[in-house]
Design brief:
- The chain is built from 5 helices and no strands.
- The chain is mainly alpha-helical.
- The protein has one domain.
- The protein is elongated and about 50 Å long.
- The N terminus is likely disordered.
Length: about 140
């Protein structure tokens, strides 16, 4: 068995998620004057990515190893939520598209919350996942 697979989560899977995270950060950093649709789209991808990280947690060691990836994802989601709140009212011409993105985001939030609940039942992971308490519970 290769060393990268001995401790539970294959390193190739972690690397792929880190690469996706880096791309998301670069896309979100290009912002400034972004629309509701853009911010909701990035937020949706962040929640999906965070959920994938949480799915990898099967032990306390997994939680500790993934914490350096989970904490920044939580921070980005908090920042995106604040950015979304600062945008104010949705323009009338975008309401239908924004409503659909919000529906998708609510589904992603629920999926993430399910993974948080699942992972929190694993002995010893509560400290490693404490940053998850900062996550918004909905888009409203």
């Amino acid at each position: 068995m290769r060393e990268s697979q001995r401790e539970g989560v294959p390193m190739s899977r972690i690397r792929a998620l880190v690469l996706l995270s880096a791309v998301t950060v670069l896309l979100s950093a290009c912002g400034g004057g972004r629309s509701h649709k853009e911010v909701l789209g990035v937020t949706l991808r962040e929640y999906q990515e965070l959920t994938e990280f949480l799915k990898l947690i099967e032990s306390e060691d997994d939680a500790k190893r993934l914490r350096p990836h989970i904490r920044p994802a939580v921070n980005r989601i908090v920042d995106l939520t604040e950015e979304l709140e600062s945008l104010g009212a949705v323009p009338a011409e975008n309401k239908a598209e924004v409503a659909e993105l919000q529906r998708q985001l609510e589904g992603a939030i629920k999926a993430c919350q399910n993974q948080v609940r699942r992972a929190s039942r694993i002995n010893g992971v509560s400290e490693a996942l404490a940053c998850l308490e900062r996550l918004p519970q909905s888009t409203e």
